[in-house]
Design goal:
CATH class: Alpha Beta
Strand content: 15-25%
Number of helices: 7
Radius of gyration: 18 Å
Number of strands: 15
CATH topology: Spore Coat Polysaccharide Biosynthesis Protein SpsA, Chain A
Largest sheet: 7 strands, mixed
Distance between the termini: 8 Å
CATH superfamily: Spore Coat Polysaccharide Biosynthesis Protein SpsA, Chain A
Order of helices and strands: EHEHEEHEEEEEEEHEEHEEHH
Number of domains: 1
Oligomer: single chain
Length: about 270
């Protein structure tokens, strides 16, 4: 299976110490890697990558993601499940949110540990987190070109799929998100939230991993008040911090036996 991996980056060091240490991207691997630099938005970067993708299966991921040795094996297993339960699937990802029944996924993040848990068949969700998004070029799905900045494109592409009658699923494929947890959200986040609320009004409410988007906009204003409290009263804007080397996290999850022992014999391909 050949895959096109796509990432939009703003820091060469983070890319080099995280995504590029993933075993499945070690040379030679047969996959295509598209690194997008200096784009104004994720939608612009990712739609351009879709046009240039040489393979049907396209994996969009953050620069601070590290794919484990078992990740491609787990992805293949999930795709086999999809052949049985929903051949016309829209978007897959490593973590997603249902509308009213919490999240689904399996992700390791330093300072926070395991988010979610292992599960068998892909789980139906309303939206997927942007850390990893998987789609087929042949599906014709595109990111809304008017969506600004680098937030909410996971919700956007899932709603684009829903508009076509296609479903989104979280898969059990452990990856590492070596992120810095910013407790206070930037203005660009709220611009994206307003766009999603306006553009996908007919699908509201929409539950994302960061906020619930509703017609009343109550959660939007609550979140802005929380930001003001964290910034001005608690003086705390950063939660968990990024580990310098993603390879250290790969070693850590192997010590914790979070991936199957068979993965130690795989080369990621």
């Amino acid at each position: 299976m050949r895959i096109t991996f796509v990432t939009a980056i703003n820091n060469e060091g983070i890319l080099r110490n995280n995504l590029l240490v993933s075993p499945c991207l070690a040379s030679p691997n047969g996959h295509q890697l598209i690194i997008q630099r200096n784009y104004r938005s994720a939608a612009e970067a990712y739609n351009d990558a879709l046009d240039r993708a040489e393979n049907d299966l396209v994996v969009f991921c953050h620069q601070d993601i590290v794919f484990t040795k078992s990740w491609l094996h787990d992805l293949n297993r999930a795709l086999a499940h999809m052949e049985q339960i929903d051949k016309n699937w829209g978007v897959l990802g490593c973590y997603g949110e249902t509308l009213n029944d919490n999240g689904r996924g399996y992700v390791y993040s330093p300072g926070r540990g395991i988010l979610g848990k292992q599960f068998d068949a892909p789980a139906l969700v309303q939206t997927l987190d942007e850390i990893v998004l998987i789609l087929r070029k042949s599906s014709g799905l595109r990111f809304s070109p008017e969506l600004p900045h680098f937030h909410f494109y996971g919700a956007d592409i899932c709603m684009a799929a829903a508009e076509r009658g296609m479903h989104s699923y979280a898969i059990s494929a452990l990856c590492i998100h070596n992120t810095q947890q910013n407790l206070v959200l930037p203005n660009e986040f709220y611009a994206g939230c307003r766009y999603i609320r306006r553009h996908w009004w007919r699908f509201l409410p929409i539950q994302t991993t960061c906020i619930r988007v509703t017609r009343s906009n109550l959660h939007y204003f609550r979140r802005r008040l929380l930001d003001a409290y964290l910034r001005n009263i608690r003086k705390k804007t950063i939660g968990a911090t990024r580990v310098e080397k993603g390879q250290d996290l790969l070693n850590e999850i192997e010590r914790l036996h979070l991936i199957p022992s068979m993965a130690s014999t795989e080369n990621g391909g």
